[in-house]
């Protein structure tokens, strides 16, 4: 596929989601994201889903799906094309009719327990196969093509989908809050992604945890849970050791009391699951 075909067929939202980047606010046509190349408090990157392009009001730079990958991965055009080749199925299917926007949506075909050998192998590779009952196998269609992945449900009914080749969200993006009836100490454990949650459950083999669990599914979702976290008496943080994780950690520390930063357990590794897989 050449550059123009990639620009026409690969959806900009899907590309951004593959890097765990999600909008701060949006409507049907346009969404605002934080800048790709710097930290900021007010989102300046405007993404037009109709044109499949983005514009940074802070720098005046315009982006397409190829240049977005180049900026984030700090790579060449050819390397960006190689990265984008896996998203061939996500053709841009927006049409403007009488001032409205029509989008061809995904379809969830079937939800079952984990059975597919490829998904079993992936869970084994991430060392969390024993926790497979906490996730599901999701068979879905995009543009009438069938795909499958490991699904983790969020509070809005959407599914985080992961496999060796896929990282996306089907449905509305949201956090996942898991309440524990035994939570007499009013404690909560905060994770960035669900594989860290599965890893924690694997490590805690007795499953005697009495705290609630909150999985952000993206650091961009933190704004939705700030007040929720403030209501707890004790917070345990299992956030990533990267800039996004550090930013969320700082925001939690400003707003909440009695915090235990558990990322010290896996210093030198991106997250809890990466550390666990290396040991």
- Mean pLDDT comes to 86
Helical run tally:
9
Helix and strand pattern: HHEEEEEHHEEEHEEEEEEHEHEHEH
Which stretches are poorly predicted, pLDDT < 50 over at least 5 residues? Answer: 88-104
In one word, what is the shape?
globular
Task: State the share of residues found in helices, binned by percent.
Answer: 25-40%
* Strand count: 17
Task: Specify the biggest β-sheet.
Answer: 5 strands, antiparallel
Can you tell me about this structure?
This protein is α+β, with helices and mostly antiparallel strands. It has three domains: 99 residues, DNA Primase, Chain A (Alpha-Beta Complex); 64 residues, no CATH class; 102 residues, Dna Topoisomerase Vi A Subunit, Chain: A, domain 2 (3-Layer(aba) Sandwich). The protein is built from nine helices and 17 strands. A five-stranded antiparallel beta sheet has the order 1-2-3-4-5. A five-stranded antiparallel beta sheet has the order 8-9-10-11-12. Strands 13-15-14-16-17 form a five-stranded mixed beta sheet. Strand 6 and strand 7 form a beta hairpin. It is globular and about 55 Å long.
């Amino acid at each position: 596929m050449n550059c123009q075909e990639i620009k026409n067929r690969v959806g900009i939202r899907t590309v951004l989601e593959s890097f765990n980047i999600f909008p701060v606010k949006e409507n049907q046509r346009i969404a605002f994201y934080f800048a790709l190349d710097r930290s900021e408090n007010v989102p300046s990157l405007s993404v037009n889903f109709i044109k499949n392009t983005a514009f940074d009001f802070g720098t005046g730079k315009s982006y397409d799906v190829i240049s977005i990958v180049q900026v984030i991965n700090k790579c060449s055009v050819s390397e960006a094309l190689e990265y984008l080749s896996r998203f061939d199925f996500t053709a841009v299917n927006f049409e403007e009719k009488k001032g409205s926007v029509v989008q061809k949506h995904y379809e969830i075909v079937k939800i079952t327990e984990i059975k597919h050998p490829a998904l079993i192998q992936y869970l084994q590779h991430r060392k969390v196969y024993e926790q497979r009952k906490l996730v599901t196998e999701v068979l879905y269609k995009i543009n009438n093509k069938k795909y499958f992945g490991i699904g983790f449900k969020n509070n809005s009914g959407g599914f985080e989908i992961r496999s060796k080749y896929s990282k996306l969200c089907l449905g509305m993006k949201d956090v996942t809050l898991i309440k524990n009836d035994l939570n007499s100490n009013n404690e909560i454990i905060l994770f960035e992604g669900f594989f860290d949650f599965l890893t924690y459950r694997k490590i805690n083999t007795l499953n005697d945890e009495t705290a609630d669990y909150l999985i952000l599914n993206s650091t961009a979702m933190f704004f939705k849970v700030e007040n929720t976290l403030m209501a707890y008496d004790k917070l345990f943080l299992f956030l990533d050791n990267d800039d996004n994780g550090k930013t969320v950690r700082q925001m939690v520390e400003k707003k909440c009391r009695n915090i235990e930063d558990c990322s010290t357990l896996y210093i030198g590794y991106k997250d809890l699951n990466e550390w666990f897989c290396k040991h």
